[in-house]
Amino acid sequence: MSQIADGSKRFDVVVRLSDADRSSRALGEMLIESPGGRIQLSSIADISDTDGPNQIQRENGRRRIAVFANTDGSDMAAIVENIRKAIATEQLPQGYFVRLEGQFQAQEEASSLIAMLSLASMMLIFVVLYSRYQSATLALIIMGNVPLALIGSVAALWIADQPFSVASAIGFITLAGIAVRNGILKISHYINLVMFEGEQFGQRMVMRGTLERLRPVLMTALSAGVALIPLLIGADEPGKEILHPVAVTIVGGLISATLLDAFPTPTLFLMFGRKPLERLVASRAHSSAPQEAF
After folding, report:
1. Under DSSP, is residue 62 helix (H, G, I), strand (E, B) or coil?
2. pLDDT tens, 218-269?
3. 2: which of 25, 110, 134, 175 lies 20 to 30 Å off by Cα?
């Protein structure tokens, strides 16, 4: 009705009916001013009891009603998909709209960001490998370990009954670097055998290089896997909610990448590695040749 000023402070004055007059009948009999004099409120308005929000919320100048819900541990993505299907079948009144927010929205945004980062990391890995070996063929052979690692990661998540989440996506990115490392160990050793130890390109050289790199590959994979064992145990313990899916993803990928990589990388190098290797040897010989002085 008015305001009371107390220095720099302003206090609103609100008129409130007594409890006895706050019924439907009493409100209808309440007199209000009109151009023709005082009239009862019921003569110009219908008054009835009904349910309504005890507080009207607004966001960006629009009225907003928030409906909160939690899952029972089920897959959140599947639940949200069912909600979206149910909303799509409903014809909302004019001016009404539905927007899903909260944890799932943050998860979707994070998943999109991680997808872009994954693509960027794959591109950077390829660029680094190409700059090192000067061959797109060798770079792709080395990166062929990444799908092998993903096989074990997906299987491990399925066995552990873990949904795909932001944490597991981070584990995929980490695993890509570990899987590429195994290919680098083998391809680099094949090149060293030809360039510095006099081996000829062929099955014998590839077999020798694979067997000599087997121990370092197993040692690095074993050390990484053992370090992640504490995170695999007690997934429900406080503090492991995020790290447990990461550990499951990495350990599963390490197992599949280490076991399956024993065959594809040597085979692909034997099939497609001759020409890139010859170019590397020729480039090395050209760079090490003495320059004639003038």
Report:
1. strand
2. 888 888 888 888 888 876 777 677 788 888 888 888 888 888 877 888 888 8
3. 25
Query: Is the CB of residue 193 less than 8 Å from the CB of residue 209?
Result: yes
Q: Which whole number is the average pLDDT over 148-174?
A: 82
Q: How many CB atoms lie within 10 A of CB 33?
A: 8
Closest CA to 96 of 121, 63, 141, 59: 63
Q: Where are the beta strands (DSSP E) in 116-244?
A: none
- Give the tokens for residue 213: 């790199």
Angle separating helix axes 145-159 and 243-260, nearest 10 degrees: 130
DSSP secondary structure code for residue 31 in this structure: E
Q: What pLDDT does residue 263 have?
A: 83
User: Which runs of E-coded beta strand occur in 7-161?
Assistant: 9-13, 31-32, 39-40, 57-59, 62-64
Cα dist from 39 to 17, 18, 21, 49, 70, whole Å: 17, 20, 17, 21, 50
What's the whole-number average pLDDT of the chain? Answer: 82
Closest CA to 188 of 142, 143, 223: 142
- Locus of tokens 């599949």: 256
Q: What spatial distance separates the first Cα and last Cα of the chain, rounded to whole Å? A: 101
pTM exceeds 0.70: no
| Spatial CA neighbour of 284 closest among 192, 206, 213 | 192
pLDDT confidence tier of residue 77, bands split at 50, 70 and 90: confident
Contact predicate 77/110, CB 8 Å: no
Q: Give 292's DSSP letter.
A: P
Q: Which residue type does 107 have?
A: Q
Superfamily of domain 106-283: Multidrug efflux transporter AcrB transmembrane domain (1.20.1640.10)
Q: What is the phi/psi pair of residue 96, to 5°?
A: -100, 145
Contact predicate 124/116, CB 8 Å: no
